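Researcher: Last one for today. Full complex below.
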Amino acid sequence: MRGVIAIRYPLFWAVGFWMVFGPSAFATPTPEEVSKNLVAAFAVETGKTPKKPTIVNKDYVGFKTRTLTFGIGNRVYRIVFSSDGTLTVAVTAEGEIGAQPLWTANLKNTTIEEIVNIVYSREFGRKYDPTLLGVTPPGNLADQAAEQSTGRSGDELRMDRLMSRIFSGDLTAGLDSRSSNHAMSESAAAKATGLSKLLNPCDQNRGGAQPQRQTVSDIALAMAAARIPAHAAELTMDRSRNYSKKKGYSFMNELGEHQAQPNPNEVFRLIKQSGSDAYELFRAALKDSDKTTKDAYALAAHRNFRTVARGAGEEKGKRIVDQVLNKTIVDVDSFTSARRLTPKAAVVHDRKSGEFFVDPTLTSPTQAQYLLSLAVLYAWRIQEPETLAAVTGYEEIQRKIARLEHAVLDDQDEKELAQYRSEARKLAERLFQISDELRKTGTRPTT
Amino acid sequence: MSSARPAPARRPNPLRKTSVRAAIALALFSIPALLIAGTTHADEMAVAIDAAKKSAEGCDNCLFFALPTKNSMFSQHKLYFVSTLDRLPPPFWTVAMNRKKKAYLLQARELGGWNGALKEAPLKLTTDAQLKDFAKAFLDLAVGRAIYLDDILPGEKNRIEKKMGKMPFSQLRIVRDKTRFRLQFFGKDVTGAVQLWDLIVEPTGHIVKADVREF
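Model: Here's the assembly. Have a good evening.
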């Protein structure tokens, strides 16, 4: 009977082992762990316990973020753990509205020590040394677990190997009932079952082992699923979906979530600073991934960027983005004055000065992206050779007409004037077409 | 003796002579007429552009262009569309000009121009078809080439229902009073926004009130 259990529930034993030796040996850094280590590090260094960091969970479409906010002195650090496996550390100094990105990394390749070090080194100007401070470096947890395992029985070691195989992606070994793990002894099984009994809060009577087995199996399956998506087609699909959805995520978005009243100047300054963010949008626009978000502004921005990216190409598009960012003005008075002629416009472009006046009331990062995309679209359309030729041609003809109208004309001049007027009319017709297209251009957000 | 009859003297073809004269006369009169007409047309365009320029604050040095257009509601006036590419999105004006070259700006935001022009040449709106044409003309001229919507698409309907609760109507709704009409209709402006217009109109075409809601 026991042998049957051993054969049927390999993951059951795997989780038992996981519970015995602790989850930290395999886990990626979590906000709670980072929080604990940060507090410990700063407590030892400053001699007093800093205020406990707050952890905020946010659900986006297709992915989640967990943001740890840690205030120390006159600076606030935000560490964003994204469900797609990225980690971003940013700092906001007193008086600043926007955060300055410090570090972005893959969560899997990151240790708690590294994360703490980013904050620690910025605050104290030297590298964080967890051993001196008495904090166990998370990187050593695996070694610690290995040290502990030296005294274990052969079954436990086999279990260890099985776990390693499972976590390294070999799910079949764990799921195959005829695999070698049937040799596991009763002691390991009993230990795991006992632990699972203790850990199961739903079990009031602590009677049979079945509920515990079920709980442990569920945990094990969840763990294995999270660890080994390559072996499950569905999970792979989920991941790819999340990956495509993730394109809609931006650090700017995350930033916006934490600003009570973001100043549009600040938002645009940050967009300018993190030019790569704008490029990223631009690059993403080249790929057909409309359904990354349901935010109307983000969708409109994406479509506008895509129009330019497809029409102008990526390199030229980037140049236009730079031009626009250098000429963007976020000012209430200027915008109000510029918008008198086009009351509904979110962006107004003055062709002669080259300036773009953007709506200062659209303050969220996605709204800022939309404004940028619209400005880029206008810049591209007005720089098109055909448009430029029509405008300059019309200007030239008007100049000639004005010169002839103010002169005494002979028959030849009269004919010339009539010809110019005819040409001017043709050009005006073309300019009207362009004007109509430009009025229609740009996707507006439909809320 | 045969007496040969002398051949009759060749007489000039009176028809030919007339046609030549007519052609010469036509040429003599038409060239100046064309020149005058051209000049007049250019002058009117300049007047239309000036009228638009006056309302284009901060765009004094912009390069404007005008294009003549027509509408049956303004049979006594010459109509011009005026725009510029020095500002984006390009601003847009419709100018109605009477024979004395007095210009009226037709704008939904400021109905003085519309009512002024129609005061000079009042309409006689009675039938539903006339009122529908009036609504179309209003959208085309005063709302900057917006179009009248006969039908609302399902997506647009959803958007409207999201904001209004339920779709109030889908086609032109006319409420008749003793002296006035109330016209409610959907239009679509150049940006693609669906607009619900609510006009109170007198039979002369004078608009008492114009409200709009955008979706």
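Strands of chain A lie at 54-60, 63-72, 75-82, 86-93, 100-106, 328-329, 347-350, 355-358. Chain A touches chain B through 41 residues (CB under 8 Å).
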